[in-house]
Every structure is written in C-alpha cells, then in structure tokens.
Amino acid sequence: MHLFSSRFFRGARPAALVALTLLAGCGRDLESETVGLAALADRTLTWSLTDVDYFEGVEPEGSHRFTVTFSLAQDDRCTRLGEGVTATFNGAPMRLEPGGIDDTAGRGVCVPTRAFLDFDPNVWGQEPTEDARVVLQDGSATVSLVLRGGKAKRRLAFQGAGDADRLTRGQTYTYQWQPAGEVPASVNATLLREGGSAAANIPLTQDAARVSFTVPAGTPVANHLLTLSGSAPGTLLECTGVASCEGTVFHSEEIVVTVQ
C-alpha cells in the first residue's frame, strides 16, 4: 500500500470539478419575478453528471452529482421559480434551488433555477445501469429529461496483464471507459511524482471507448499519482417542457502507481 501525505495532494490535484457559472448581474434595483414551470418553456435546460473519485481526503461538495440548470431569462429579467414545484431523479427527490436575486455577494446577482442530486458512488457501482429520468412538475407544466444509461458509475478500467498499480517505463497500458456503450469525447492522463508539484501530461491514443498510453522512458522511478479524466456527450432519449436540453458527463479518478 502506498502512503502519500495530504500535503502531497494539496494544491497539486487537477481542477477536476469544472464549475459552470451561470450568473449575471441584475442590479440592485431589479426584483425577482416569481413564475411557474410553464414560464420556463423557452429556456435551455443544461444537465451535468459529475463523477470524480479522489485517492484520499474529504471529497469536495459536488464530486458525485447530477444537476439540471435552466438558462437565464432574456431582456434583463430575473425569474424565481414559485412554490409547489417538485423535482425527482428516477423517483428520488432532488434539491431544488428556485433562483432569483441573490445579494449575498455584495451586489445583486441573478441566480439560475436548478435542481441536483448527490449520489453515493459505491451504491451506483453495485447497482445495474439505468436510464436517468429527471422530472420537474407543478400545477402549470411538466419538464422531463431522460438520459440513456445516465444512472451508472463511470470508470476507466485497467485492461490486460499485470498490476494496475505497477507501471513500467516504455510499456503501453490500456483502459476501458465504462459503462459499456458510452464513448468518451476525450480522455486525459497525467502523472504526478510523489513530492512533486507539477503533473506531467501523457499523450494518449483513443479507439472508441478504449484509451492507451505509453509511460515515457524518462519518468522517474518512484510512486506517482495517475489521474485519468474524460468527458462524454451522453445520449438524450427525451427532452420536454423546455426549448432544448444539452449537457455532458465528466469523470475523473486518481490511482497511486509505482513506476519502475
């Protein structure tokens, strides 16, 4: 078992969680306009599935989260979702944030309406893959989004002979994006030597859901933190109640390896 101090990772981890900022200045003199779901029919619903596995330490909030966010209103309007709205993910309640004017940052900011579910990666890893169905409802309308195979734990599984935690300089290693049937748009790999401060990017080749890299001959013989990360577009099966739906799956995982 390889032991890395917490100081090794602090400040060295890649920015695996990409925050999508959907805020716009609304001005202190504006007020939130309370609306029902029917008033959001002309909006874009952006979904995101974040699945980030860290080697050690407390995982940041949102490391394993499915989120849907409505685009902001046009013409400098700022809307807030009214009472009586429910949001579910495959029947489980989601946390709903109605949006509207937020003055906590010291100036009036228009915050978008969104809903999210924080999932347990260990539970998802044991359960079969399912389509992800998000439904928001009130007395005026229903908004629904269905993502094929959305409820599944993402992994980059080690393929071939040998041990996943022992890599040899000059050798090529292959990993398979999971779940089956989902193809990442891109995958990245980095190596960070124990005690180092800068991660080295490793060139990858990709064949559909399989990616391979060769450990550079000049890599120091030492323990390293291997980070594999990638994104996939996902496949929408349904998008109703809004003008359009768009989004992406993001997965990252850290593995401590010995380079020899």
List keywords for this structure.
260 residues; mainly beta; 9-stranded mixed sheet; 5-stranded antiparallel sheet; 23 strands
Describe the protein's architecture and organization.
The strands form 5 sheets. Strands 3, 4, 8, 11, 15, 17, 18, 21 and 23 form a 9-stranded mixed β-sheet that branches. A 5-stranded antiparallel β-sheet has the order 7-6-12-13-22, with no helix packed on it. The radius of gyration is 21 Å and the shape is elongated. The longest helix is centred in the middle third of the chain and has 6 residues, at 121-126. It has one domain (22-259). Strand 12 and strand 13 form a beta hairpin. With 260 residues, the chain is mostly beta strands. The chain has 2 helices and 23 strands. 4% of the residues lie in helices and 49% in strands. It comes from Pyxidicoccus fallax. This is Lipoprotein.
Computed Rg: 21 Å
Shape: elongated
Rounded to the nearest angstrom, the distance between the terminal CA atoms is 16 Å
Query: What's the quaternary structure here?
Result: single chain
Order of helices and strands: HEEEEEEEEEEEHEEEEEEEEEEEE
Mean pLDDT: 89
Give me the count of strands.
Answer: 23
**Helix/strand class:** mainly beta
Major sheet attributes: 9 strands, mixed
Number of separate structural domains: 1
Number of helices: 2
β-strand amount: over 45%
Helicity range: under 10%
Taking pLDDT < 50 over at least 5 consecutive residues as the criterion, the unreliable ranges are 5-28
